[in-house]
Specification:
By secondary structure, this protein is an alpha+beta fold. The protein is built from 20 helices and 22 strands. The longest helix is centred in the middle third of the chain and has 20 residues. Bound molecules: ligand BES and zinc ion.
Length: 629
């Protein structure tokens, strides 16, 4: 596909020639036809005289009209046409400008509707919601799906403010990544006064209620889970306070959480004013709430200072994990902070072994997206290699006392801007060249990669040792070992299970051993999705076919990609289970978001097709499974 734009390989828009300052949206939400219908008025800043055309990104969008709005209130219709779509990218919408268009302000209104397969939108029927009474709509625009919701400059190089008027069924609540201005029966208006990249546009509409979490913070969810959510995320206000101690003032005014339906494909999404989180965080013991710390950290790293394109995604995610671990450190101590980093390294190891086994070029901090979409490059690398690199620099330059003032100055310098890695580097050198740390900077370049800083391993050693015990000892020996019954935290248990999965060899990995594992650590009845996920991967590794239904039930209980993707991948490599997995995937894939379904289809089920032979094999297998019980 080649590079689409000079500034952003994944966008047709030309931010070097024109930028968006503000967008005004008017939408009618049509649940019957699963479409948004309405208009967007973009307030552009034209950067060169005689610009021949405005190029926007679109994906499955029908434009009904386009016109330039003039000062007096009149409008001039403009000619427009769309290119053929490119897979995973979408199409280029050309809006032809009249000759002699001047530099400066330009208002363009586009009337349009979305397609019912808009890749950013998930439309749920009432049956797919918890309450079963009302439909639900939510969006997920990152990385490049905003273009399926509106024609826009869908590149993080451009930031704009927005307002929206949304008409929706009056019994439902509409929320966006913005402040609510006004709510009338069936019409809600919103305003986002801080400039944002298009990928931070977000909307959710459903039968939602809220509980307070703090002065400017609420949690929203369907009624059935809202109290459990308020309890699980009760540390939100304290996390916000801690984050602004580290990063500077919080500019977004409101910080709400929305607990999403099961098909939400991520752990969390940092939509401004309204973070989306998966309901798989509801473990009952707050042990998974660090995802909220992560999304809060994005209020500075990502949302205020934004990667200019997704080749520099580590500037969003690596910095955010770095700040997230600082929040953990401030709230729970530095041992926990380092344990957090070490757990991340276990995940990175898994990612490099599996997902990136054949793509060494994607292990770079800055990737080349000339020939692939941001989704193909998405991995733990920008998160964990990125945050580990920052931690290394921090330690090298003298620790948090020295580094945090720099971090704040970097965030202030680039607030409301979009950055590439060289901007960060320039800021780093400018700042430290003036200090006695100047010489240390040369070590950074010489020492790359890979550098693992010195972490406090106290907490990780416990899970490490358990993984050694369980992988090397027989079940009979383990039963006699008092080491295994020492009490450990939820996170240590999760890390231990993750490390066990990473062991090349596990002695006697069979039904007995898994039974002992589950009973020793109360894993049978756990609500903790991170624990269940890891246990079930061990069950797959032990090839316990009689538990296939439980495995499939978990994979289909939520479509958070972190969980369902590796499970489907593992099942794809297990001959006896593969046809069952294929059948299951075919059954549920329409309930997944498009990104999730595509990823699973691509990597674990390249030959996921329901041909006669696999169907037949499947029937035989189900018969065997039933008879094993
Ligand atoms: N911004 C990301 C989610 C994302 C990234 C969506 C790229 C689409 C494309 C979000 O902040 C995130 O990183 N979520 C993580 C949780 C985090 C604790 C590592 C997730 O969803 O697992
Ligand atoms: Zn993130």
């Amino acid at each position: 596909m080649g590079r689409l734009g000079k500034v952003d390989p994944s966008s047709y828009s030309e931010p070097e020639r024109i930028t968006t300052k503000h967008s005004a949206l008017k939408w009618t939400v049509d649940f019957a036809n699963t479409k948004l219908l309405g208009s967007v008025t973009h307030h552009f800043n034209v950067l060169e005289t005689n610009l021949p055309a405005i190029l926007l990104d679109v994906r499955d969008i029908t434009v009904n009209n386009a016109s330039i709005l003039c000062n007096g209130g009149s409008s001039i219709p403009i000619n427009y046409f769309a290119s053929d779509p490119v897979e995973d990218i979408g199409a280029k919408l050309t809006l032809e400008l009249p000759e002699g268009t001047a530099e400066g302000d330009l208002l363009v209104r586009i009337d349009y509707e979305t397609s019912n397969r808009a890749s950013a939108l998930q439309w749920l029927t009432p049956e797919q919601t918890l309450g079963k009474q009302h439909p639900y709509l939510f969006s997920q625009c990152q990385a490049i799906h905003a273009r399926s919701v509106l024609p826009c400059q869908d590149t993080p190089a451009v930031k704009f403010t927005y307002e929206a008027t949304v008409q929706h069924p009056k019994e439902l609540t509409a929320l966006m990544s913005a402040l609510i201005e006004k709510k009338e029966a069936g019409v809600t208006t919103f305003k986002q006064e801080v400039p944002i990249p298009a990928y931070l546009l977000a909307i959710a509409i459903g039968d939602l209620v809220s509980r307070p979490l703090g002065a400017n913070s609420n949690v929203w969810a369907e009624a059935g889970i809202v109290d459990a959510s308020a309890e699980e995320f009760s540390q939100t206000a304290q996390m916000l306070k801690t984050a602004s101690d580290i990063c500077g003032p919080y500019v977004w005014k409101q910080y709400d959480l929305l607990v999403m339906p099961p098909s939400f494909p991520f752990g969390g999404m940092e939509n401004p004013c309204l973070t989306f989180v998966t309901l798989t965080l509801l473990a009952g013991d707050k042990s998974l709430a660090d995802v909220v710390a992560h999304e809060i950290a994005h209020s500075w790293t990502g949302n205020l200072v934004t990667n200019k394109n997704f080749e520099h995604f580590w500037l969003n995610e690596g910095f955010t994990v770095f700040v997230e671990t600082k929040i953990v450190g401030r709230m729970q101590g530095n041992k926990e902070r380092d344990f957090h980093m070490l757990r991340n390294l276990t995940d990175l190891q898994e990612c490099i072994r599996t997902q990136l086994a054949n793509s060494p070029e994607l292990t770079k901090l800055v990737v080349d997206l000339s020939n692939c979409g941001p989704y193909d490059a998405f991995s733990s690398v920008p998160y964990i290699k990125g945050s580990t690199f920052l931690r290394y620099i921090e330690d090298l330059l003298g620790g948090p006392e020295v580094f945090e003032p720099f971090l704040r100055s970097y965030l202030q310098q680039y607030a409301n801007k979009s950055v590439v890695t060289d901007d960060f580097k320039a800021a780093l050198y400018d700042y430290f060249n003036k200090t006695d740390k100047k010489d240390k900077l040369t070590e950074i370049e010489e020492g790359l990669p890979p550098i693992i800083p010195k972490f406090d391993e106290t907490l990780a050693n416990v899970s490490k040792q358990l993984a050694v015990l369980w992988s090397t000892k027989s079940t009979a020996d383990l039963r006699l070992d008092t080491q295994i019954t020492k009490s450990i935290s939820s996170l240590q248990l999760i890390d231990f299970l993750g490390r066990l999965i990473e062991c090349q060899e596990i002695v006697e990995l069979n039904e007995d051993k898994i039974e002992l594992l589950e009973s020793t650590y109360n894993l049978k009845s756990t609500k903790n999705a991170e624990m269940r996920f890891r246990v079930l991967r061990l069950v797959i590794r032990a090839r316990l076919l009689k538990r296939i239904e439980e495995i499939i039930a978990f994979a289909n209980s939520n479509f958070r990609m972190k969980f369902c993707r590796p499970i489907y991948r593992d099942l794809g490599q297990w001959a006896e289970a593969k046809p069952i997995a294929i059948e299951s995937f075919q059954r549920v894939k329409d309930q997944m978001m498009a990104v999730c379904a595509h990823t699973i289809e691509r990597e674990c089920a390249t030959d996921i097709s329901s041909n006669y032979l696999t169907m037949l094999l499947h029937c035989v297998l189900l018969f065997i499974v039933d008879n094993c019980k």
